[in-house]
Amino acid sequence: MKHTTKPKKVWLARVHRGDLVIKSFTEFTLSASGIIEGDVFVQKSARFHMKGIMNGTIYNEGVVEISGLFLGCIKENR
């Protein structure tokens, strides 16, 4: 039988200043009332759902879904 790992779910609903690292097997959601000022590093097998406001750069190796206000750029690290 193959072992599957459930992703760890994390929510942010406030202001965060600084860089974030979203590690593998983590599902991170920025809620509609959340604000990030800084860079976000999304590792392989991680998911980043952005529904709030972000100002910075996303360094992406995983999955990024944007439905909020994003001021910055996305760089693929593949």
Largest sheet: 6 strands, parallel
What radius of gyration results from the CA coordinates? 12 Å
Q: N- to C-terminal separation?
A: 30 Å
Order of helices and strands: EEEEEEEEEE
- Provide the low-confidence segments as ranges: none
Residue share in helix: under 10%
* Mean pLDDT score: 90
Write down the overall geometry: globular
Overall strand count: 10
Number of helices: 0
Q: Bin the strand percentage.
A: over 45%
Summing up helix and strand content along with how strands pair, one would put the structural category as mainly beta
Organism: Acinetobacter gerneri
Protein name: Polymer-forming cytoskeletal protein
Task: Walk me through this protein's architecture.
This protein is mostly beta strands. The chain has a domain at 25-76. It is 0% helix and 59% strand. It is built from no helices and 10 strands. It has strands at residues 8-12, 15-17, 20-22, 26-30, 35-37, 40-42, 47-50, 53-60, 63-66, 69-76. Strands 2, 3, 5, 6, 8 and 10 form a 6-stranded parallel sheet that branches. A 4-stranded parallel sheet has the order 1-4-7-9, with no helix packed on it. The mean pLDDT is 90.
